Amino acid sequence: MAVLLGFVLVIWFISAVVMVTSILFHSSKGTGLSDMIAGQVYNTSVGTGLIEKNLDRITIVSAVLFFVTIIILMLIYPQGGIGGQ
């Protein structure tokens, strides 16, 4: 059970960090971090659209992983007692 808990917690942590990072990289009317980076790397609007689509996919996948790991953690500890009570 401890191995499963450790694995789920690692996946939960990684998905949380990826989700927060990918949300911060989204642009909001050309003022986000992704627009600053994409504006320097790609000068075409096609590249920026592709970057935004990939950011959307990464955000969705990380959010689903985060949600699934939270559900698994709720099933492992239904009462919230980590100390074995």
In a nutshell, what does this entry contain?
This protein has 85 residues and is an all-alpha fold. It has 3 helices and no strands. It starts with a helix and ends in a 9-residue tail after the last helix.
What's the topology here?
Layout: H1 2-25, H2 33-41, H3 45-76
List keywords for this structure.
85 residues; elongated; mainly alpha
Task: Describe the structure in your own words.
This protein is 76% helix and 0% strand. It starts with a helix and ends in a 9-residue tail after the last helix. The chain is mainly α. The chain has three helices and no strands.
Shape: elongated
- The first-to-last residue Cα distance is 15 Å
Q: Write down the Rg.
A: 18 Å
What portion of residues is helical?
over 70%
- SSE arrangement, N to C: HHH
* Major sheet size, sense and barrel closure: none
Poorly predicted tracts of residues = none
Class by helix and strand content?
A: mainly alpha
The total strand number stands at 0
Tally of helical runs: 3
Rounded average pLDDT = 79
Q: Percent of residues in beta strands? A: under 5%
